[in-house]
Design a protein that fits this description.
By secondary structure, the chain is α+β, with helices and mostly antiparallel strands. The chain is built from 15 helices and 16 strands. The strands form three sheets. Strands 9, 10, 11, 12, 13, 14, 15 and 16 form an eight-stranded antiparallel beta sheet that branches. Strand 3, helix 3 and strand 4 form a beta-alpha-beta unit. Helix 5 packs across helix 13 and helix 12 packs across helix 13. The longest helix has 22 residues.
Length: about 425
């Protein structure tokens, strides 16, 4: 009996060692929705020691201070590329897009370069102040918007129509001496304000779309089917440019508006917006809107492909902010390296939970994917060192670039069914878990 008992104990010990070897040791610096996702993932174990993780979800501040001094195991993964800011700082994003557009015009031609005409006229201040003044004087009476290059949630943004408004702002008597000093050295972008936004119910909105990049060399990018439109709670008007609740759709700002309804929030799911555009303008026009957005995602990533420091340990979940004008032309406003993961409603929490769950599926720490997948959960492979086209493409009926892209933004997200088909259950997991 002792012999049998000893054998069993040894067997249990070996199984425990095997489980520990297979577990994913993670560290998370953000205690929001991502923490909930990580804690419920089978086989994942949270660690506190800086040197003990193989998966890290950190903020960009940690990255800036620690990345160059950290040893990463072969299969370790971290949720930012080292110089992600080349795409996510407003001034650098525009600089890289302008350079990319010039290179296309030089190497291929004006028609190809015109595919990059999706961002408003923008100047970095103070370095391009004189160029900005020339452009400003060429269009008298137009509205411009000033944005700090490295802030989010609408902080520090204001609209203006006169050059003296910038001077007035710098000399704003309501600022403390310390704030004034900071304001004078902080970099901004001055951007031509889109005065003719597409309105629904008289209200302005912009779109938040999620793109996951798992490699820059070669470029491999995934587009998530879900996203949302963020609405202003106040009807749009150009009669006043000082009312943030009219012009800025950031939830952090809108939730302070006097007529904000916390029960209803100020968001539409992307599927709802796609149905609205299809019903109002027809299938073809709606399809073209989303096709134009696909172009924005691909061109913006290509614009930094040669400058981003590619690292097999890194991936990045970008939050794209896009505005439609009244002609249904999409404009890229900015790209976020740390899109907000906090939820403004139960529906918003569920959507972000699914997004993050599927992000982990694509990153695949457990090694369950073959690497040839074109869809994982709510993600569709959009670019894989070249265009990725839909499975149902008939080559004989489409010509060259007319192939429909493998993107389904705002379409049905039947991720649970797809994941059950795609992924084998983890140890101790009978089926793909989902948050409902």
């Amino acid at each position: 009996m002792n012999k049998t008992s000893g054998y069993k104990g040894s067997h249990d010990y070996q199984r425990r060692l095997e489980r520990e070897r297979k577990s994913v040791r993670y560290k998370c610096g953000q205690y929001k929705t991502i923490q909930d996702v990580l804690r419920q993932r089978p086989g994942w174990v949270e660690v506190k020691d800086d040197g003990d993780w193989v998966f890290l979800w950190c903020d960009v501040g940690w990255l800036r201070e620690n990345f160059d001094h950290s040893y990463l195991e072969e299969h370790a993964r971290i949720n930012h590329f080292r110089n992600h800011y080349e795409l996510t700082r407003k001034n650098l994003m525009v600089k890289n897009l302008k350079r990319y557009r010039k290179s296309l015009e030089r190497d291929i031609g004006q028609m190809e370069a015109s595919k990059c005409d999706f961002f408003p006229c923008t100047y970095a201040l103070p370095s391009e102040y004189h160029l900005f003044v020339e452009a400003f004087r060429r269009s008298p009476g137009s509205t411009w918007i000033m944005k700090p290059v490295a802030k989010s949630q609408g902080k520090g943004i204001f609209l203006f129509r006169k050059l003296k408004d910038i001077m007035d702002w710098k000399r704003d008597g309501s600022r403390s001496e310390e704030q004034t000093d900071v304001a004078q050295v902080e970099n901004y972008v001055a951007q031509c304000y889109i005065e003719n936004p597409y309105l629904i119910g008289g209200r302005k909105f912009d779109l938040r779309v999620y793109v996951l990049v798992t490699s820059y060399i070669p470029l491999k990018a995934w587009l998530y089917r879900d996203g949302f439109a963020r609405f202003s709670s106040t009807r749009f008007s150009l009669s006043t440019i000082d009312d943030q609740y009219v012009h800025l759709t950031n939830v952090a700002i809108q939730r302070r508006a006097p007529d904000y309804d916390p029960e209803k929030g100020c968001k539409w799911q992307m599927q709802q917006l796609r149905r609205y555009l299809t019903a109002k303008h027809g299938t073809e026009i709606a399809e073209n809107v989303f096709k134009d957005m696909d172009n924005i995602f691909v061109c913006s990533l290509q614009s930094v492909q040669k400058v981003i420091i590619n690292d097999k340990h890194c991936f990045e979940l970008y939050g794209y902010d896009i505005l439609l004008d009244q002609n249904l032309k999409p404009w890229l406003l900015e790209i976020n390296a740390s899109p907000s993961l906090s939820a403004s409603s139960a529906e918003d929490y569920d959507m972000k939970f699914r997004l993050l769950e599927d992000t982990l599926h694509v990153v695949d720490m457990e090694g369950r994917l073959s690497g040839t997948e074109r869809r994982v959960g709510g993600y569709d492979l959009m670019w894989n060192d070249g265009h990725v086209y839909r499975d149902d493409v008939n080559v004989e009926t489409h010509g060259g670039s007319c192939y429909p892209a493998n993107t389904h933004l705002g379409c049905l997200n039947d991720r649970e069914k797809q994941l059950r088909h795609l992924l084998k259950p983890l140890a101790g997991q009978k089926r793909i878990q989902s948050h409902t």
